[in-house]
Amino acid sequence: MSSNQHYSFFHSVERSFDKAAKFTKWDLGILEQIKACNSVYQMRFPVKLDNGKIEVIEAYRVQHSQHKSPCKGGIRFSDEVNQDEVMALASLMTYKCAIVNVPFGGGKGGIKINPKKYSTYELEKITRRYTAELVKKNFIGPGIDVPAPDYGTGPREMSWIVDTYASLKPGEIDAAGCVTGKPVTQGGVRGRTEATGLGVFFGIREVCNMPDVMQKLGLTIGVENKKVVVQGLGNVGYHSAKFFREAGAKVIALAEYEGAIFNENGLNEEEVFQHRKATGSILNFPGATNLAKNSDALELACDILIPAALENVINGENAPRVQAKIIGEAANGPCTPEADEVFIKKGILCVPDMYLNAGGVTVSYFEWLKNLSHVRYGRMEKRFTENMNTHILSQIEELTGKNVTESERKFIMHGPDEHDLVHSGLEETMINATREIMDVWKDNPEIPDMRTAAYVSAINKVATSYAELGIFP
Known about the structure:
By secondary structure, this protein is α/β, with parallel strands linked by helices. It folds into four domains: 40-186, Leucine Dehydrogenase, chain A, domain 1 (Rossmann fold, 3-Layer(aba) Sandwich), CATH 3.40.50.10860; 195-351, Rossmann fold, CATH 3.40.50.720; 382-415, no CATH class; 436-473, no CATH class. It contains 16 helices and twelve strands. It has helices at 3-21, 28-35, 83-99, 120-136, 155-168, 195-208, 211-217, 235-246, 269-279, 337-346, 353-356, 359-373, 382-400, 406-413, 418-443, 450-469, and strands at 39-48, 54-63, 71-77, 105-111, 145-149, 227-231, 250-256, 259-262, 289-291, 304-307, 326-328, 349-351. The relative contact order is 0.12.
């Protein structure tokens, strides 16, 4: 890819920002400050490979905004990593955190490697060295900058980071909070795996519960019986499909890079996943019809379309053929600005990625709070709640002379554990963020789409923080 193409990513974020800034009352100077990346750290360090050769690794960490501390954002391992991409992703993190009211500034990191080409030991050396470089320049810490997983990284890499950080900062009691997305045994939080997919579901469900919005789209209220198409059966797509199906929606099509399958009576994502594991493809799934191209799924008649795979899959060329009423951007940047223009003309509601896939960072925030409080969610109150509920239930049964069923008894008596509390916190976050964005849009009918409304909401919150901090004398 040429640097021009990459350059356009940061530019397209700036373009969306400028489009929204026109609907705010802030001084141009404040807007310029919000747009700019505060600090960009580009580094090179040597690593000795298993074959004895030395390789120089290129890596980055960008802190976009310190209107709230710490900064927050993932670290990706990819051949495509470059400064422009990391800057763009860091700025999106600022707006994403602002929209969902998570008190972090935006950050992002990247190491320019293809992780598949290195042994586990080499990856560990690279990750630990990267962490040491961040510590040297004060670019990581529970109160400074808190990384997380992204493309090519996961809980394993996060446990290397926290171990390296803790060994370089002996006695720092909150060391576990220097990174999120850790394994549960290392201070991670339960419920992180399904967080993004569940957040997508909560966000879309809230939109579907708004009578005025549904009326405009010509749809019934609620997600029940809605026809859903999901593109991408990775972590986010899989969990999105699962939660929609469990809520009574019909997932009529699933797409992966080898192709797409369709069944108007609905598909079960777990059965499709197992079929793919066994055969290496989602195609030829029993009872489903194969579609010629995986992109055909994007053009099916449905109520809700969820692109949960790559960026730019819906663009100016295929957007006119999209028949969904609602598009939920589960992936990062699946729809281009040209596609947005088409959706406005066609009256399609595009629910933007920038807040819809914020489930990951929201649950990361809960993990960080858990690390700072040094106590697992639910530990203090679970038994108390169960004992109290048991007592109330037995009193009611005694007074009425009737007994509840065994399954109801279990449900009523249940005290919340970490999973329950994390899901509940995520639900609250997504419902509030959806309502805030819709209110911004209602207050200013000239705002063209929900994406712009989300940016306006983010800009207002960040600018207010800056103004209240008195950063501008």
